[in-house]
Design brief:
Low-confidence stretches of chain A: 1-5
Mean pLDDT of chain B: 94
Strand content of chain B: under 5%
Number of domains of chain B: 2
Number of helices of chain B: 16
Largest sheet of chain B: none
Low-confidence stretches of chain B: 328-339
Shape of chain A: globular
Number of helices of chain A: 0
Strand content of chain A: 15-25%
Oligomer: heterodimer
Structural class of chain B: mainly alpha
Helix content of chain B: 55-70%
Bound molecules: FE2/S2 (inorganic) cluster, fe (ii) ion
Shape of chain B: globular
CATH topology of the largest domain in chain B: Heme Oxygenase, Chain A
């Protein structure tokens, strides 16, 4: 995985192994129910394991999932 | 903040030298520092307070100490005496963990998460979540004021010592820690709002006379790693471990704060860290530490040292808190949870 914003692309989504997707420079994320969630920080982590208690954001819960 | 009250001969000598009352006798200082046995260095309140007081002129300083003491050669030499003792002891205590991390396979970022996941230190957040009294939660907040009221300041010293992708990622992380351009969202300000609502004094350093030696040791370790360019790898390893043990514990602490009925603004600081540190841990472990070691493979051991130092000191400080609060079954009952730390 490389740092974002590279090579002339404005927004680079970064997929973290066993973890969330990092998004830089987005102002909101629309979830699967159509609800819009404002992004309040320069980089946000979108949950990819669907176990977060603060969806659509990652809250670290993915680390409780067994890894092997 | 005023120069803190001394807790023994070392901190007394530092205090008098900072105030300009008495020149520091470096030979005597070194002798006294050498009298502290190696295994007691991290828990010696006098030594840790002396070191904390010597670091502070690099941060906010003391109102009653002239600003140019920051670069007083004799005080810097005294700082070096204590730093050598502390660094040697931290290396001694973490040697096995560092060797195990070096022997493990896979990308460094992944290994950092694995090391953190395998850590089974004391469960302070779980205790705060389920069992702590309101007074114990406030006691916890009081100890944490030493760190959270200057949150991320130590790590900001490392920025000019990094290049390329790790530098960009640390800048991104710090920008978030420092409020993303909004002073009210500075993490240190959010914590100050919380402690004030909890009935504590929100001024930085207000409790330095009260906190434990291990709280000072936790903070001194960050200054030690972050103020020496030589130790930049360890500083970033420490940051990665810190961030990687924060979001889940922050959720528990926020729940504990609500359970004992403290104001919402106290919990808000920890809510913020559930989300923020889920981002920061990825940046710190993969982009900063992973990138740093890609640029300079010789830093791998240092990064792992920083990870191990963070986990070790957190375990020491956590055990002390749980011991202070409760010797009973409530503490044993939380022993089954995963690894944890608190917001950064
Ligand atoms: S990806 Fe982190 S909680 Fe789902
Ligand atoms: Fe923070
Ligand atoms: Fe953080």
């Amino acid at each position: 995985m490389t740092a974002g914003g590279a090579e002339g692309h404005e927004v680079v989504a970064e997929l973290c192994p066993r973890g969330p997707m990092l998004l830089r420079g987005v102002s909101a994320v629309r979830d699967e129910h159509g609800e819009l969630h404002e992004a309040t920080r320069p980089v946000v982590a979108v949950c990819m394991c669907h176990r977060s208690q603060r969806l659509p954001w990652c809250d670290g819960t993915h680390k409780a999932v067994r890894r092997d | 903040m005023l120069c803190p009250r001394d807790r023994g001969p070392l901190s007394a000598m530092v205090r008098l030298a900072l105030l300009g009352t008495e020149d520091l006798d470096l030979e005597r200082f070194t002798r006294l520092a050498d009298d502290v046995p190696a295994e007691g260095v991290l828990t010696d309140a006098d030594l840790q307070l002396a070191l904390w007081t010597l670091y502070e002129p690099h941060y906010g300083g003391f109102e009653d100490v002239p600003a140019d003491r920051e670069w007083d050669p004799r005080l810097l030499a005294a700082r070096g005496v204590l730093e050598r003792r502390v660094e040697a002891e931290l290396r001694r205590r973490t040697g096995d963990a560092v060797a195990a991390g070096l022997a493990a396979e896979g990308p460094l970022g992944e290994r950092i998460f694995d090391v953190v996941a395998a850590d089974d230190g004391p469960k302070v957040a779980a205790y705060l979540h389920r069992h702590a009294t309101s007074e114990q939660v406030v006691d916890f907040l009081r100890e944490r004021t030493i760190f959270h009221l200057k949150e991320s300041d130590p790590q900001a010293f490392v920025l000019p010592r990094l290049q390329g992708a790790p530098k960009a990622a640390l800048a991104e992380l710090l920008y978030d820690e420092f409020g993303g351009g909004r002073p009210s969202r500075l993490h240190a300000s959010m914590f100050a709002d919380g402690v004030a609502a909890a009935g504590l004094d929100p001024r930085y350093g207000a409790y330095v006379d009260d906190v434990s030696a291990t709280t000072l040791a936790v903070n001194n370790a960050m200054s030690l790693l972050c103020l020496h360019r030589r130790l930049r790898g360890a500083a970033m390893g420490h940051l990665a471990a810190f961030e990687a043990t924060s979001s889940v514990p922050s959720r528990k602490i926020a729940a504990g704060i609500r359970r004992v009925g403290l104001p919402e603004v106290v919990a808000a600081y920890f809510d913020e860290h559930v989300e923020a540190d889920a981002v920061h841990e990825q940046l710190a472990a993969r982009t900063i530490c992973g990138g740093l070691v890609e640029q300079d493979p010789g830093l791998e051991e240092d990064v792992l040292l920083g990870v191990a130092v963070c986990l070790h000191l957190d375990a020491v400080a956590g055990a002390e808190l749980l011991d202070r609060w409760n010797h009973g079954p409530a503490v044993a009952a939380v022993a089954a949870d995963g690894p944890e730390r608190v917001a950064s």
